[in-house]
Amino acid sequence: MKRRTSKRVKTPSGTERVKVHVRIRPSLPTDGSRDPNSTTPSTTTTMYQSQSQGKVNVITGLNNNGKNTHNTNDTKAFQFDAFFDENTTQEEVYDQVARPIIDGVLDGYNGTLFAYGQTGTGKTYTMMGNEQVQPTAAETLDERGIIPRSLDQIFGTMRASAEEYVYEVSMSYVQLYCELLQDLLEPDFSKTLSIRESAADGTSGSTDSGVFIQGLSSFKVNSKEECLNLLRVGHESRAVAETNMNAQSSRSHAAVVLNVERRPRMKLCTDAADQLLSPLKDKNAPKKTSAKLFIVDLAGSERVRKSGATTGVRFNELKSINLSLSALGNCISALSEKKRHIPFRDSKLTRLLQDSLGGNARTALVINISPCDADAGESLSSLSFGQRAMAVATRAHRNIEVDYKALYVNPLVLVGCWTTCLIPLDTTPF
Ligand code: ADP
Ligand code: MG
C-alpha cells in the first residue's frame, strides 16, 4: 500500500531537560525486620534534609550507642526540581510531576512519566497508588497515584472541551520480563514482541516516528473506567513474585501507553464551508495533534544479598532487572556527559525509553528513596542517578499535521452546507 505523505507543520521547539523529583517514603512497620541477613545494627545513620527549591542534603553520621553524631562535613548536596518528604500527598506529587506533562499530551507533545528506585521505596505507590477508586466525601485521603489521576485529567479535559474538539484515545499495556517484551492485554506469553525503529527522523511531526513495539495490541478507549478495566486485566498477567524486600514486588518493568489524537470539531455549516473551500492552504486547513503518553512502573533494583534470591528463577529475574537498570544508568550518564554514542541498544528497557530520554518527548521522573539507614547506599546511588538525569536534554516538539480525515466529509452534508452559505456548487473542490 502506498504510504500517504502528510504535510507536517513544524513548530519552533526549544531544548528542555528531563525533570527529576525525589520522594522519600514514610517509615513502615516492616522496616525494622526487613534485612534477614543483617545480624548487627547499622553503624551509620543518614538524614535527608530538604532545603528550599528541590535542594536536598544527605548527612551521614556515626551511630554512637544510639546517639547520632551528624557531622556536617559528611554532607552531600543534591539539586532536583522538587523534593517530596514523607508527608507529601499524592495530589501534590501529581500536580508538580505529571500535570504539566498531561497538559502537553493533550496539546500534541509526547510525554513520559516514570519512577526509579530500590524495591519497596514507593514506585508503584507513586504510579498507581493504593486505591483505584476515588474516595467518597467521607473519606479524606485520596491515595490514587499518577496513572488514575492522569486518566482523570485526560478524560475530564476531553469532556470539558467536547464542543471544540473530537478526541480519539487508544491504550496498550506491555511488560518487559527477563528481557522479553510481552503484551499484557493480549497475553500469549509464547509470543514476544520486538522493538523497531521507523526510518523517519526523530524530528518529524508524527508520533509514529522513532521507536515502537511491533505487533502490540491497542484498544480504543472512551472513558477512565475502560482504561482502569484494561489495567486490571493487564495487572493480573504481570509477573509479580514475593521477595524479602517487598511482598508485592513487581519483577517486571511495565508500561502503559496512551495515544491521544485531537482534531477540531467541524461546525456545520459556516466553519466547515470556510475550511473546505480553502482545504490545502496551510493556514486554514484543519489540523490534528497526536501524542503518545508513556507511563512506566519500573521493577526495583535489589542487592542479591538483601533479596534472598541466590539461585533459580528469582535469581535470573533479579539479574535481568539489575542488568537493564544498569544499562539505563549508563545511558543517563552518557547523555548527561553529552557523549556521541549512547548505548541504548544494551537492553530492551533503554531501547523502549530511547525517545523519552533525549528524543521527541517531555519526560518527568520520580526518584523514590527509603528512609532506612540500612538502605542508605541504594538511596545515595538513586540520588546520583537522578542528579545525572537532571542534565539530560530533551527535544520535544508539537506533533501537528493537516487533518486529512476532516476533509472527507459526506458530500450530501456539504451540499446542504454550501447552499445555506449561498456558495455556488461549482466551486466544490472535488
Ligand atoms: P516499589 O514499587 O518501589 O517496590 P511500593 O510502591 O510497592 O514499592 O511500596 C512499598 C510499600 O510502601 C507499599 O506497602 C506502599 O503502600 C508503601 N508506601 C510507599 N510509599 C508510600 C507513601 N508515600 N505513603 C504511604 N505508603 C507508602
Ligand atoms: Mg513496584
Describe this structure in words.
The chain has 430 residues and is α+β, with helices and mostly antiparallel strands. It is built from 11 helices and 17 strands. Strands 2, 6, 7, 8, 9, 12, 13, 14, 15 and 17 form a 10-stranded mixed beta sheet that branches. Strands 3-4-5 form a 3-stranded antiparallel beta sheet. A hairpin with a 2-residue loop joins strand 4 (55-64) and strand 5 (67-79). The radius of gyration is 25 Å and the shape is globular. The two termini are 23 Å apart. The relative contact order is 0.20. Mean pLDDT is 79; it is low at 1-12, 35-39, 201-208 and 412-430. The structure holds adenosine-5'-diphosphate (ADP) and magnesium ion (MG). Residues 25-26, 28, 117, 119-125, 130, 246, 248-249, 300, 368 line the site of adenosine-5'-diphosphate. The site of magnesium ion has 4 residues, from helix 2.
Mind sketching the topology for me?
Elements: E1 16-17, E2 19-24, E3 44-50, E4 55-64, E5 67-79, E6 82-84, H1 90-106, E7 111-117, H2 123-127, H3 146-160, E8 165-177, E9 180-183, E10 194-197, E11 211-214, E12 219-221, H4 224-237, E13 253-264, H5 270-277, E14 287-297, H6 304-307, H7 312-336, H8 348-352, E15 362-369, H9 376-389, E16 393-394, E17 400-402, H10 404-407, H11 411-420
Parallel strand pairs: 2-6, 2-15, 7-14, 7-15
Antiparallel strand pairs: 1-16, 3-4, 4-5, 8-9, 8-12, 8-13, 10-11, 13-14, 14-17
Helix pairs in contact: 1-3
The chain binds adenosine-5'-diphosphate (ADP) and magnesium ion.
